[in-house]
Amino acid sequence: MGGILKQHGPWAILAVLGALSLAVLAAGNGEPVNALWIVAAAVSIHLIAFRYYSRYLAGRVFGLNRNRETPAHRRNDGLDYVPTNRYVLFGHHFAAIAGAGPLVGPVLAAQMGYLPGMLWILFGVVLAGAVQDFIILFISMRRDGRSLGELIRMELGATAGVIALFGAFMIMVIILAVLALIVVRALAESPWGLFTVAATMPLAVVMGIYGRFIRPGRIGEMSAIGLVGLVLAIVYGQSVAASPVWGPIFTLTPVQLCWILIAYGGIASILPVWLLLAPRDYLSTFLKIGAILALAIGILIMQPTLQMPAVSRFVDGSGPVWSGSLFPFLFITIACGAVSGFHALIASGTTPKLIDNEMDAPLIGYGAMLMESFVAIIALIGASIIDPGVYFTMNSPAAVIGTTAESAAAAVTNLGFPIDSATITRTAQEVGELTIISRTGGAPTLAVAMAEIFSHMIGGAAMKAFWYHFAILFEALFILTAVDAGTRAGRFMLQDLIGLAVPSFRDTATLAPGLIATALCVAAWGFFLYQGVTDPLGGVNTLWPLFGISNQMLAAVALILGTVVLFRMKKHRFAWTTILPASWLVLCTLTAGWQKVASADPRVGFLSHAKLYSEKLAAGEVMAPAKSIEEMARIVFNDRIDAALCMLFMTVVIAMVFFGIKACWRAYLSDGVTTQEVHAGPDQGETVVLAS
Amino acid sequence: MKRGLRAQLVHAGQMLVGMPSYDAYLAHMRDHHPGEAVMSYREFFNDRQAARFGGGGRGGFRCC
Questions:
Q1: Which residue of B has its CA nearest to A544?
Q2: A402's torsion region: left (phi>0), alpha (psi -120 to 50) or beta?
Q3: For residue B1, is it within any domain?
Q4: Mean pLDDT score of chain A, rounded to an integer?
Q5: Quick check: A77 and B64 CB within 8 A?
Q6: What pLDDT sits at residue B63?
Q7: If pLDDT is split at 50, 70 and 90, which confidence band does A300 have?
Q8: What count of other Cβ atoms lies within 10 Å of the Cβ of residue A239?
């Protein structure tokens, strides 16, 4: 009895603390609630899940074995396969999975209040997101660190492998488009922001040359140079923006920025990696880790009060930020932070090749995802501590609130979040921007929140504009890195896919296939980016759900793979751990996909939106925001493309469910274990595949 | 195998950006491939950088 108390007692106290925090948050009833209650709820739920659920998965479900040799030992080459300290590897894995997604999704979801988003982030990560990351890491670790595509081919068959590869490529396209859109929305008409981001390119080149020729491989020194340069760029950015000569040069419209980004993506992805991509990646990674830590500490010091209601009236789907009701769209809007399919690609990448001991896998697979969930919680807090009037002014499209401070104040007040035009103008001045109206995409909103928190710690109100642009820079920096790296990855995926039909296309040594694949990849995401930039509803409303659906679709695919592997291991009595989240994700993606295609509400459904515009078009009328017949026709065309894409995603999900059930059934009927794990062979270094 | 705290921290920082430990590589070559040519730090750095960002599109891409 005493032993049990000693072992579980502290955890029981933590559970009580978590429950208390949730109760305070849920029963707030209009009383102001301190943001620390969210932190307390999140930390207790994360710790309890890590202590109990990840151990359950590791021990009972996966059967991790501390004596079993990991790929890092079996194939140790000092390069790709290296046994690595678990905490070091945790950092490596976390830095690779956490990007802009967990920062943006929760900000957008805050339009429904902080409670729905918070609950989904916490319960989603425990039961779905962290399970997915962990099981893929486990599967890959037991198969020499193979990639997701190879794993699906091994366990589900070649056809399923091709479908999954194709799905992964389409996700990449949508992710790149939506990330680029966020940058466009954050930097358009913002000379200060654009100058600082533009300054990072020559800065990265200087770093790259320094690290290759002057002091080879000195990552620390390179990053220090970069950091000093960044601070100078932010400081002088203000003068540049105010200059009558330079200010207008860096004041660009969204469409101009869109073309610049497309050109950037094409050029940057064929430059040598050491010149631009790698140095900027170093800078953005260290900046990211630093900014996240600073933000968490800042919230603990400032102890801000939540301004956003716990549940807003927009749960019915009438919100201005994005359309659609709580189910299924909340679960699509917050992907990263709760469950992100993209992580399956990372968990089957470099990380499984570096694991020292199987027992390290829970910390890295499950733990790092909990950490990302905590980042999402921080972003949600950020969006909830600023004035809701400011939040809706920044995140509502111009089609809803107009473009002047007066029209925006009137429209947002009318939505039920009172704000006056003076507040809007003052907030813009405080952060050193021309306007804050319709700065959609989440990044500017988070930057306002970060400026609020950081200026509370350092510098006071005078530093707000500096911190705002620091935050914008920090977000733009790793988004641009992702655009560049993603275009490269997309290019290789495309070469692989086209190579199925034309084998010579796979050749990475000759120039032409690479260039063609790069151009196709850039054209694909550029198409969706341009569509988003010219979209009257701000683009986020169209592209973010597509991104969410595709990302959750990949997560469902990964969890289906996990289920199949559990069945083939004859562990089907534990398969509910993956079937439960997979079913939920399939339900959400199919419902959301179907509503995006077929909803009668033109704000939600692509086809009804297309119908509305094509009827007007047939009558020869021009409907706002289109300004010409050509624009009308383009809106209709884009809607139909988006609907087709949605249906494509749904088809991928349904096909994978079919392949998954088939493979599970066959494994269930078979007498023994049929999974294909890689074991150490009789002579060291050789590997053999267990008979299937 | 005990290394100084400073070295561990540098290693952890470098692993954040996917640069593995040169010391571990040297130790591996010494133990398992004695007599074979060993890359200089400069070569090692360039090799790992290319592997991370250019390696068949497999490495280096970041999550959303």
A1: B64
A2: left
A3: no
A4: 92
A5: no
A6: 62
A7: very high
A8: 12
Residue A530 has which token pair? 């341009």
Q: Which residues of B touch A95 (CB under 8 A)?
A: 16-17
The one-letter amino acid code at A77 reads: D
Q: Check residue B56 and give left, alpha or beta (phi > 0: left; psi -120 to 50: alpha).
A: left
First to last CA, chain B: 36
Q: Is the dihedral of CA A58, A103, A321, A187 positive or negative?
A: negative
- A475 to chain B: nearest residue by CA? B64
Q: Whole-model pTM?
A: 0.95
Name the pLDDT band for B55 (thresholds 50, 70, 90): low
CA distance B55 to A281: 16
Sign of the torsion angle spanned by Cα atoms A161, A162, A165, A167: negative
Do the Cβ atoms of A87 and B46 come within 8 Å? no
Q: Tell me the mean pLDDT in the region A666-680.
A: 87
**Neighbour count for residue B12 (Cβ, 10 Å):** 18
Q: B48 to chain A nearest CA, in Å?
A: 7
Q: pLDDT digits over A317-358, tens only? A: 999 999 999 999 999 999 999 999 989 999 998 999 999 999
Residue B12 lies in a domain: no
Tokens of A158: 């070649």
The predicted structure's pLDDT at residue A448 = 97
* Measured torsion, CA atoms of residues B58, B56, A139, A580, in degrees rounded to the nearest 10: 50
- Cα-based angle A614, A618, A621 (whole degrees, multiple of 5): 90
Q: Angle at CA A494, nearest 5°, toward A489 and A500?
A: 135
Residue A680 pairs in a beta bridge with A687
What's the pLDDT at B4?
86
Kindly report, residue by residue over A562-574, the tens digit of the pLDDT.
999 999 999 999 9
Percent of chain A residues past pLDDT 90, beyond the cut = 82
ipTM: 0.93
What's the pLDDT tens digit per position in A229-250?
999 999 999 999 999 999 999 9
User: How close is the nearest chain A Cα to the Cα of B5, in Å?
Assistant: 13
Query: CB distance from A266 to chain B under 8 Å?
Result: no
Which tokens sit at A390?
């400011």
Q: Cβ separation of B63 and A273 shorter than 8 Å?
A: no
The yes-or-no verdict on residue B53 having pLDDT over 60 is: yes
Domain that holds residue B50: 21-59
Q: Tell me which residues of chain A, numbers 157 to 176, contact chain B at a CB-CB cutoff of 8 Å.
A: 175
The values of phi and psi at residue A688, to 5°, are -130, 150
Contact B62 A96 (CB under 8 A): yes
Nearest to B63 among A91, A281, A346 (CB): A346
- Chain B residues whose beta carbon lies within 8 Å of the beta carbon of residue A346: 63
pLDDT per residue as tens digits for the range B28-50: 999 999 999 999 999 999 999 98
Taking an 8 Å cut-off on Cβ atoms, the answer to whether A99 and B29 are in contact is no
Residue B30 resides in a domain: yes
Cβ-based burial of A519 (10 A; exposed 0-12, middle 13-18, buried ≥19): middle
B39 in any annotated domain: yes
**Domain total in chain B:** 1
Rounded mean pLDDT, A374-384: 97
pLDDT value at residue A538: 78
Q: How long a stretch of residues is chain A?
A: 692
Asked if B57 lies within 8 A of A493 by C-beta distance, the reply is yes
